[in-house]
Amino acid sequence: MNLIKEKWYKKDIYEFQEYLKTYKNENRVEWTKKIINTSLPCLAITSPSIKSIVKEILKGNYLSFLDLMIWEYYDNTAINGLLISKIKDFDVMKKYLDIYSSKADNWATCDTLSFNVKGNEERFLDLAKEYFKSKFPFVRRIGMEAMFKLIDNDKYVNDAFELLDKFYYEDDYYVNMINAWLLCDLFIKRREETLKYLANNKLNDFTLNKMISKCRDSYRVSQDDKDMLLKCKR
User: Fold this and answer.
1) What share of the chain is helix, strand, coil (3-state, %, to 5)?
2) For every one of its 234 residues, what pLDDT tens digit does the chain have, with 9 covering 90 and above?
3) Least packed by Cβ within 10 Å: which of 14, 92, 122, 131?
4) Cα 227 to Cα 234: distance, rounded to the nearest angstrom
5) In Å, how far are 37, 90, 113, 172 from 34, measured between CA atoms?
6) Residue ranges per domain, the chain?
7) What architecture is the 117-234 domain classified under in CATH?
8) Judging by beta carbons within 10 Å of its beta carbon (0-12, 13-18, 19+), is residue 48 exposed, middle or buried?
9) How is 143-187 classified by DSSP, letter by letter?
10) Angle separating helix axes 121-132 and 137-150, nearest 10 degrees
């Protein structure tokens, strides 16, 4: 199928979906669905194949493809997420991301996204704060995905800590897990600021303990720090 188009039409949906099915890995469908934990049917298309398909779509009018709003399979969401990540205009990206996030029902759909925050740091911070307020856990997770990119900038480290404190009553496993990953990343990249934060924080027990576990598993954390963090466990 020709994936490089100046314009995608509704009539192209059937052909595209049939094309995707040629990549279906029948032996891995159930395994993939179980690992991802999605309610959507899966074709279990490999990541290299998904990336190859996306690469071709990007050569044409990929926004027109996104406008088709194809969400039938998990694999469709993976394709859409990778395409949305390539949108440079923040307002345009946000329009598609809002729709995408409302469809997310699993961690992999969130983690497929790769935000380029350069030049739009304040707007991505606002996005994270907006998504934090969502009643949908995977929207909250996507918001915290954006914070990963922001903590490379000194200006937004305290914003990350302030936002993490607001998740004290969070009870969703996948949201708490992304927060633990973020806090681990903060410790590795911003050790002194993170130690100061840990001395006076409002983290829930799961997030703190899981962060300590992840730091202790990391080769980027010294043994002395691993031993020290263990004493902070609740």
Assistant:
1) 65, 0, 35
2) 999 999 999 999 999 999 999 999 999 999 999 999 999 999 999 999 999 999 999 999 999 999 999 999 999 999 999 999 999 999 999 999 999 999 999 999 999 999 999 999 999 999 999 999 999 999 999 999 999 999 999 999 999 999 999 999 999 999 999 999 999 999 999 999 999 999 999 999 999 999 999 999 999 999 999 999 988 888
3) 14
4) 14
5) 5, 34, 21, 18
6) 1-114, 117-234
7) Alpha Horseshoe (1.25)
8) exposed
9) HHHHHHHHTTSGGGHHHHHHHHHTTTT---HHHHHHHHHHHHHHH
10) 150
Q: Give the amino acid at 175.
A: V
Write out the two tokens for 227.
């031993």
Task: Return the structure tokens found at 55.
Answer: 């690469």
Per-residue tokens: 64: 């027109």
